[in-house]
Queue: 2 jobs
Job 1
Amino acid sequence: MKKIILFVALATLSCASYSQALGYEDLSILFSRDDNNGSARFKAMGGAFGALGGDVSSMTINPAGISVFNNNHASISFYSRNTDFASSYYGNSITTQEDYFNLSNAGTVFIFEDTNSYDWTKFALGVNYRVLADFQNTFIASGDSGFASFDNFPLDNNAIPITYDTSENQRFTNFYDGDISELNLAFSGVHQDKLHIGFGMNFYDLSFSQQSILRETNNDGNGNTLNARFYQENFTSGTGFSLSAGFIYKPSKGLRLGLSYQSPTWFTEILEESNIVNNDGFFGDTEIEVSNDNVIYDNTVGGNLPFQSFLYKLKTPSKLTASAAIIFGKFGLISLDYTTKDYTGLNLSGDDFSIENSFFDNQLRKVNIINAGTEWRFDKLSIRGGYRYEESPDANAIDSDNLESYSLGLGYNFGNVKFDIAYTSNSRTGLYNFYPQFNQVNAAELNIDNTLITAGISLSF
């Protein structure tokens, strides 16, 4: 049985039974995320390559873009990410800062000239691997909501049990890990040097884990205190695939227009393993101690560590991208992508997910995504800039919940070898409710700031 139903059904029990881990609505949105990773040039220009092409990472948006290359090409990029998580919970603020390092992309494109055909002059085959979404993050929220969810000691033998209903503090520590990797296989051809047409297959590998600890301190108003520690963990893995197609048309030498479509991603089997199982009335590893008793309650004593596995399927939203690029000869360019992504198309299956699917239909929305980029060349040096805007899928989101990203970059051409570096900064806000079954407790407010340095090298051969 799914944990979200369990926690709703058991929220009224005398022993607190609740989930501080992400529910399936949140996980579905999380697994639909795209961090816009790619080559350093791609990052520097805001990922606006739908009509531009000519970059290994462009096949993630429009597979037609790989036939813009004139020669075989290969590239690899890495990034370093610094993330600030600032939490605010009942007037108390905590900032957590962490650094992460990961592969951004690695790919190659092979060009095949067709000298026997006037109509089809060139074909291209591309393979690219990238980190679609990086989940590694840590944050802490602490404060006093005035509400005590752990208000009794399970080993209390008094005729009238002591009630610890005066709240002193709640402290929530959360750890995320894992990522979604994407492998793109693309094929593209050029018709009469004006029309690039491409098709792609995309394969995904999902790995995600969450480990969360809630600590709560309460008292009975007479000097006796209760300290509770509640731990939940879940480990999720899965595989998926999607299809993509697009074209780039050149009505004139300096103008390119593009249109591309990516189907929903079908995760045909997602496996979740977690300790969110009823263990003596608590859905997680629970430890409670009180000041007026030298015995500690621990529902995991003697190796009592129940675990459950659960299989389900997920369909994420499709994407439609319209693009335009203006090329100023060998001097520079301006590129713009506009993408729509309808989160009401999210769908869970494999069990009774009617509550979650109704949430997708009624609480989420179609989002607009804008990617803009520019590049200017000064002999062997290129200077780049980019902007990215993506609306939050929450139909009730405020403006700060939307993602805004700015980027700058440099590239240097050594001939057949090019070196690129990009700086990217983005920010957004959000909420995290670690007492979802108690309406009297507010969610923690989160402010998330990311800065990334992406560096890569590419080779033409």
Job 2
Amino acid sequence: MRADAASRRTRHRVYAGDARRLPLPDDSVELVVTSPPYPMIEQWDDQFASMDPAVATALDDGDGQAAFDRMHAVLRDAWAELARVVVDGGVVCVNVGDATRTVAGEFRLYPNHARVTRALTDLGFRQLPGVLWRKPTNAPTKFMGSGTLPPNAYVTLEHEHVLVFRNGDRREFEPGADHRYEASYFFEERNRWFSDLWDDLRAAPQVTDEETPRDRRAAFPVELPYRLVSMYSVYGDTVLDPFWGTGSTTLAAMATARDSVGVESVPELPAQFDDRVDAVRSWSRERARRRLSAHRETVADREDTYEATHYDFDVVSRQERDLRLYAVSETERVLGGYRVAHEPATDAET
């Protein structure tokens, strides 16, 4: 796998293992993008019970609060591992949804985002502003409960939380760090991506025609980790997903030319990943082309601009001048994961 001076090569490792015991050295990860099993969502009951039998006992006894507490105790051990492997100044992004459930005849909300926040802040992570994203839904109604009769209807949950935390102070970079300026994002992307509400993920192109069914643990469209990796890491960084699932974070890291590590407790899931890797080359090229074309349109009529170093269009700010996007040019299966070659992306039709 050859690469010229303008190209990049990345490594992507996938381990079968337990998020509570990561096979990684201390201070080895710059960014975490993950979505854990959601406590009190029934499809993950068995997984939590396999790690703590008291979960099953609480559910059998009709004690929803005790089950909720025990499930989050399991997750807390995984968050403690992040405190060990994330570098000082590194960022942790956790996608999580709240749960509604009836246990022993009692219906209630189980606020997973609040419990994850408490666990990570108790470990010393500093919470940053996060994002609510609206999930695509085919629900025929916008309410549950008693329909149109007050007061017993309740709101349908159509969003999830992206919680964002930093490990200590902001990362320090040497002045003029090339890998940081090359990894910048466009001005208009900054305005859209750093909004606290994302409602446009449905329209983003997917790596496959249909996203993997949720019962196989694909918690989000690839566009979501793609944005987070672009927002919170630079070229040369390693991105970790300790609840790897179907590998959406790894695909996002491949598409953005970052290294990645995934850890997955269900051994058959990594074995089913090759088909998605085969599709990431065309997806990454198309995603980069759309970004470049959209920016070209944005600056077409602007005058207060700067000349870009690597493209024939202008940019809005000095920080964007050295920006360069990459697309996957080749993937190679190797022991323990993948090696990926990347070439500079263009906005030409492909």
